[in-house]
Specification:
Order of helices and strands: HHHHHHHHHHH
Structural class: mainly alpha
Distance between the termini: 36 Å
Strand content: under 5%
Largest sheet: none
Radius of gyration: 24 Å
Length: 264
Amino acid sequence: MSVNNITSFTSRNYPVKNNTEKNRENKYLKPGVILTSALGVGAALAVIAKKQGFSLKPSAIKNTPVKDWAIFRLYDKNHPNKKTIELEDEKEIISLAAASVAGGLAGGAIFDDKKHFKAKLREAVNQLLGNVLVPVACVGGVARLYKANKEKLVSVMPQLKSTGKFAKNFNKVIQILPGSFATIVSLGFGIIAGNKVSNFINEKLFHKKVERNIKGSDFAPHVDDLGMAVSLMAEKSKGASFIQRIVPLFLCVPGIETGMHRDL
């Protein structure tokens, strides 16, 4: 066989795209998905702010100091009646996450090849169930149970009788241990259970068995779950309200994961 025939056979059956062409096809995918996920979360956050009494009129926003905008204003114990946006309810977390996934899925459909869309749909199920709905349900249920029994749980924790600074700080740390333990355990259980449920649902919906096992690297997208857990468990404070402000940022992750996903 001649060299020309070999070249012709290879190029006809095994077309290879050079790196420049590949990069040109995909360079808009990640920024596009990040943008659409953020737009989804931003739209949901605006609806929540409106329902909680914040004005979305451009004139009102313009005349309000930036630090007092709904997305930036923190709880101030010296002005406890000053309105701050609340993201403590499960339905608010779920609406933000759903908007993120919808935005990421839209971005994936726009900026990626259509052949990957089914894989993104499966990842949307994984993100909504495994990363959001099941963990939120677990943490929310345990949070309500903990708050109903908080006084009893805190009362059995050992306390130092000294009035010194060390004793005061020690006592504060000891008092938050039950809530912290409840948060970590419920979140861990929710992530594991959610992963199992999403794998099962995907198998039934898409007739494809996928074992999406949890690895150490998989916990990066769960920062949003941890922030949500703390915001549900914590009492009102500047620190707790700060966590609530950054939860929407972390909740962009499920949308980005959805839009970027491709089957291996």
